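Subject: design request, 342 residues
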């Protein structure tokens, strides 16, 4: 595998970085401001990046790689709109049904209450992931052997409990799904669903990588100006070693996530699934550690609500939980290597 990005993926990332640079902020209030995020969404749409992600990179040399690098860019910018839940996961899951996608999106992924798996229609509590602007919730029912999956769509109730773990993504809890909320269902191909699940793991890993990139970038800028004992703390060897260790974690997470995305484009889903699990496992382990370390660089300021480090830490912890964390995927990888099925 050539670890260099394809030209169109690199160009898409450069375009995204150019757009995002005009919407940067230094406080929680600025980054979560509704006007800022609405204008940023419009700018991404005008640049064609929203549609590129919504089509899963269609028309590019390696579509999943392109989508992954764009996900990294948007996550690092703390874009508080449902690009992952709507443009990527929700839209592509709905597309498996063969139905026309709703104009402007609207399909959202349903997760189990512990966030570890895609919800079924029989769950007593379902988390609506990236709920902002969503109109329908997608669950997937499966037989015991995992075959013959069925997508079931439900109208999202207007009154739902908000989950405030991740302030950059609105997630809500639906207390039981009823037949009255059901809107449509469709049987889908087992292989296609497993391929979607593999890409979903890859994209969540990419989101975690973007969070690490954004957190470390801000932390490194801060240690150049924060002074102790009459000089910037970035000149202290202990800080430099710590920063270097975090940079290694970011680069390793990025490499395995791009490898997983490449596998989705170039390999059978079974081979790609191994790399997607590797990316999700490693990124889940690294993202929280890096976000916590970056928060420490800010000292007491990092613990305040309006400082940005806690936004990265919250998002990294949420990414680590979605569709399983380090332990689940490491065990699954071990089982595969040993020829066992968990």
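Subject: RE: design request

Done. Sequence follows.
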């Amino acid at each position: 595998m050539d670890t260099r990005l394809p030209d169109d993926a690199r160009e898409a990332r450069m375009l995204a970085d150019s757009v995002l640079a005009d919407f940067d902020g230094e406080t929680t209030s600025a980054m979560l401001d509704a006007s800022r995020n609405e204008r940023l969404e419009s700018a991404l749409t005008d640049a064609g990046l929203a549609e590129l992600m919504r089509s899963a990179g269609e028309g590019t040399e390696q579509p999943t790689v392109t989508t992954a690098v764009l996900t990294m860019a948007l996550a690092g910018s703390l874009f508080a709109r449902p690009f992952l839940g709507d443009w990527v996961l929700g839209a592509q899951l709905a597309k498996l049904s063969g139905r026309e996608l709703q104009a402007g999106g609207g399909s959202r992924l349903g997760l189990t209450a512990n966030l570890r798996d895609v919800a079924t229609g029989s769950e007593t509590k379902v988390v609506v992931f990236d709920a902002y602007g969503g109109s329908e919730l997608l669950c997937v029912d499966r037989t015991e052997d995992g075959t013959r999956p069925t997508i079931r769509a439900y109208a999202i109730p207007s009154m739902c409990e908000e989950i405030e773990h991740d302030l950059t993504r609105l997630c809500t809890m639906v207390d039981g799904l009823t037949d009255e909320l059901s809107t449509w269902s469709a049987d889908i191909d087992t292989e296609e669903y497993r391929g979607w699940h593999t890409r979903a793991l890859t994209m969540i890993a990419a989101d975690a990588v973007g969070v690490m990139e954004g957190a470390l970038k801000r932390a490194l800028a801060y240690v150049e100006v924060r002074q102790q004992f009459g000089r910037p703390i970035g000149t202290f060897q202990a800080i430099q070693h710590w920063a270097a260790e975090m940079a290694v974690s970011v680069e390793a997470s990025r490499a395995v996530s791009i490898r997983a995305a490449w596998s989705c484009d170039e390999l059978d889903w079974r081979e790609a699934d191994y790399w997607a699990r590797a990316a999700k496992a490693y990124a889940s382990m690294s993202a929280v550690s890096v976000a916590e370390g970056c928060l420490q660089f800010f000292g007491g300021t990092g613990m305040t609500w309006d400082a940005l480090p806690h936004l990265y830490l919250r998002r990294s912890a949420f990414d680590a939980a979605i569709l399983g964390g380090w332990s689940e995927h490491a065990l699954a990888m071990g089982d595969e290597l040993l020829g066992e099925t968990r």
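The mean pLDDT is 91.
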